[in-house]
Design goal:
Rossmann fold; binds S-adenosylmethionine; alpha/beta; two-stranded antiparallel sheet; 10 helices; 275 residues
């Protein structure tokens, strides 16, 4: 069977889990053969002799198992990152959070220290380290697998000297007194929320933020304020704008703004405290 015939044959098995089934079969073939898209398109009529390997992966993908966990790769902010089971897969909307941080950091002239809470695969810290020259980052997580992967991603992008990885429950193991900004995409989904099947394969401690969902976000706000850190930038759930805006009133706030994601849902905020 040629590659072209193979793609055609296995496309039908993925129709239920993706709107791009043929493309996904191609991605799996490229993953098995370790080839890129240009090679694939130039070799469509070549015999494909790894059908058994492909069938195994297609069946796995047909259970809604994420493609990124199969290939071990994901793109974020136009860059390639390593991903693995046990660590959250990067989401495109988190790019907006990175953009918001860059806008503030670019206005400052001195070296800045930024703390990321819940670094996961390290995408936020790595992108900030790549894009901001004069920066020192502390990236924390409670998940060892995440910290390992984030370190690998920092190495892959050559920014390992700019990021210190620390195992910490929020600020527990952080004693620095000169942090300029905290950034976080924390777990913010309510514990009883029924996740779609594809998301079920991702770690629950990266997703669930408490009974209501915003408990961890509120702890981050409390601790950031008590540490006298000027800026806090967070991603949040689409329905958390009102309760968080109300919560901000308990603090001395210089300015705050909310932003929306690419689908026009409320998705996060920038908070500047006044001390
Ligand atoms: C939604 S994921 C975000 C991962 C990554 N920053 C991203 O945007 O893709 C949340 C991360 O927070 C971590 N986390 C959960 N509770 C935490 C806590 N109490 N302290 C530090 N990290 C925590 C999880 O392990 C997970 O990696």
């Amino acid at each position: 069977m040629t590659i072209k015939q193979t793609v055609k044959k296995y496309t039908s098995l993925l129709r239920e889990v993706t709107h791009i089934p043929a493309k996904e079969v191609e991605i799996l073939i490229m993953h098995i053969l370790d080839k890129n898209i240009i090679w694939l398109h130039m070799n469509y009529d070549k015999e494909f002799d790894k059908v058994k390997d492909l069938e195994k992966l297609v069946k796995k993908r047909a259970t809604n198992y994420p493609m990124e966990y199969i290939t071990g790769k994901a793109t974020f902010y136009g860059e390639n990152f390593l991903v693995k089971e046990g660590v959250l897969i990067p989401r495109p909307e988190t790019e907006i959070l990175v953009d918001n941080a860059i806008e503030i950091l670019n206005k400052e002239n001195q070296k800045l220290k930024v703390l990321e809470i819940g670094t996961g695969s390290g995408i936020i810290s790595v992108m900030l380290a790549k894009l901001i020259e004069n920066i020192e980052i502390i990236a924390v997580d409670i998940n060892d697998k995440a910290l390992d992967l984030a370190k690998q991603n920092a190495l892959k992008h050559g920014v390992e000297d700019k990021i210190t990885f620390v195992k910490s429950d929020l600020y527990e193991n952080i004693n620095d007194s000169d942090i300029f900004m905290t950034i976080s995409n924390p777990p913010y989904i309510a514990d009883d929320y029924k996740l779609p099947t594809n998301v079920k394969y991702e770690p629950s401690n990266a997703l669930f933020g408490g009974k209501v969902g915003d408990e961890l976000l509120k702890r981050i706000i409390d601790d950031t304020y008590s540490k006298k850190i000027k800026y806090l930038l967070c991603e949040m759930g689409y329905d958390q704008k009102k309760p968080l805006e109300e919560y901000f009133k308990d603090f001395s706030v210089k300015s705050h703004s909310f932003y929306k994601d690419y689908e026009d849902f409320d998705r996060g905020f920038t908070l500047e405290f006044k001390f």
